Amino acid sequence: MGCLFFVNSKKVRIFDTTLRDGEQAPGIDLTMEQKVRIAKQLADLGVDVIEAGFPAASEGEFEATKKILDEVGDKVEVIGLSRAVKQDIDRTIDTGIASIHVFIATSDIHLKYKLKMTKEQVLERIYESVRYAKDHGLIVEYSPEDATRTDEEFLLKAVKTAIEAGADRVNIPDTVGVMHPFKFYDLISKVVKVADGKIISVHCHNDFGLATANSIAGVMAGARQVHVTVNGIGERAGNASLEEVVMALKKLLGYEVGVKTYKLYETSRLVSELTGVPVPYFKAIVGENAFGHESGIHVHGVIENPLTYEPISPEEVGNFRRIALGKHSGIHGLKKLLSDQGIELTDDELREVLKEIKALAETGHKVTVDDAKAIAIKVSSKKINA
Ligand SMILES: CC(=O)SCCNC(=O)CCNC(=O)[C@H](O)C(C)(C)COP(=O)(O)OP(=O)(O)OC[C@H]1O[C@@H](n2cnc3c(N)ncnc32)[C@H](O)[C@@H]1OP(=O)(O)O
Ligand SMILES: CC(C)C(=O)C(=O)O
């Protein structure tokens, strides 16, 4: 089934940073083997770019980047993050990688308290670093860290400087997640205007729960690449979630993305298992309850036509429909569940079974299909013995 609404469909690149920004989250330290397993899954999923890590950070990061490059570099663009310092760029080049993601902050607060650099010095550093990487034959993506808290005029200067230096793409990070969709749309529109046709990317954090919405707004404003992580893992409240961004772009806005969406659920589970970070029950697209139904009116609708209460099919993302029994159940759902177990009851018997199920659920008991079967057999045999 195609897009739910028609909009101009254009290709949007999916830049996965699960193995870099995702792994930066406190408590997530993946082994090389684990990183390679996830990288293979991401390549199989069909993302356009895998940010493998930060090669200058440690020996392990360096080796893991190299290993990922060996394993999937022929299928997908593998990129490494680097500060705008020669030693980091050299270390990244030493991995044999073809793409580098160079970043340096542009906001007043980062210049004053972290970098202790002037705006002029930062502009110089942007030019030097991007130029140096380009002179070594790399594809270069530049990020003005903390872009969304940067003085707009200076941000546009930084973007233009990177492009003058030869940057192939410019990524606009909402580093501490302070954007809302309308404001981000306006900002990205201005950046696209000065980008001289280069791809503009967006990298959104979820501090106010707006990372996915802001990412979509960025694409609507002209960005054609989105940084995402599986399950939305990442610094603090995380990043824009790959599964949410991909499905929203495809199904709500009609953009083309190369991701095999039916592999989203399995990818989510793999990352959850290896990082040890559980997927929230109510998580959009890949949560256990994303296609779960109990209330009678919903179950009845879903039985007749799943589109009554499911905007997309679970199969489209590799997830599963779950019909549960409880205090909110209705007769249509109960009839279907029992019929699937080979038990056919009259409406009166079904009503009696349903009444007992609701009473059982009211005690706090999680009602199972086996409970329903036992009650149904009791009710039907009572009638037979009557
Ligand atoms: C928004 C983000 O996610 S940014 C990416 C964050 N990721 C990481 O930090 C990856 C893991 N980091 C590391 O392993 C280490 O921080 C390293 C190897 C990068 C640097 O380690 P250290 O030398 O111990 O420095 P430390 O991390 O304490 O401080 C960062 C230094 O880099 C400088 N710096 C930070 N960002 C940048 C940048 N983009 N370009 C240039 N210099 C930078 C800081 O000003 C500070 O410089 P100083 O040492 O001269 O004061
Ligand atoms: C390095 C950049 C892109 C980043 O992770 C951020 O600013 O959030």
From TrEMBL:
<dbReference type="Pfam" id="PF22617">
    <property type="entry name" value="HCS_D2"/>
</dbReference>
<comment type="subunit">
    <text>Homodimer.</text>
</comment>
<comment type="pathway">
    <text>Amino-acid biosynthesis; L-leucine biosynthesis; L-leucine from 3-methyl-2-oxobutanoate: step 1/4.</text>
</comment>
<dbReference type="GO" id="GO:0003852">
    <property type="term" value="F:2-isopropylmalate synthase activity"/>
</dbReference>
<feature type="domain" description="Pyruvate carboxyltransferase">
    <location>
        <begin position="12"/>
        <end position="265"/>
    </location>
</feature>
<keyword id="KW-0808">Transferase</keyword>
<dbReference type="InterPro" id="IPR011830">
    <property type="entry name" value="LEU1_arch"/>
</dbReference>
<keyword id="KW-0432">Leucine biosynthesis</keyword>
<protein>
    <recommendedName>
        <fullName>2-isopropylmalate synthase</fullName>
        <ecNumber>2.3.3.13</ecNumber>
    </recommendedName>
</protein>
<keyword id="KW-0012">Acyltransferase</keyword>
<dbReference type="InterPro" id="IPR054691">
    <property type="entry name" value="LeuA/HCS_post-cat"/>
</dbReference>
<dbReference type="InterPro" id="IPR013785">
    <property type="entry name" value="Aldolase_TIM"/>
</dbReference>
<comment type="similarity">
    <text>Belongs to the alpha-IPM synthase/homocitrate synthase family.</text>
</comment>
<keyword id="KW-0100">Branched-chain amino acid biosynthesis</keyword>
<dbReference type="Pfam" id="PF00682">
    <property type="entry name" value="HMGL-like"/>
</dbReference>
<dbReference type="InterPro" id="IPR000891">
    <property type="entry name" value="PYR_CT"/>
</dbReference>
<dbReference type="InterPro" id="IPR002034">
    <property type="entry name" value="AIPM/Hcit_synth_CS"/>
</dbReference>
<dbReference type="GO" id="GO:0009098">
    <property type="term" value="P:L-leucine biosynthetic process"/>
</dbReference>
<keyword id="KW-0028">Amino-acid biosynthesis</keyword>
<dbReference type="InterPro" id="IPR050073">
    <property type="entry name" value="2-IPM_HCS-like"/>
</dbReference>
<dbReference type="InterPro" id="IPR054948">
    <property type="entry name" value="IPMS"/>
</dbReference>
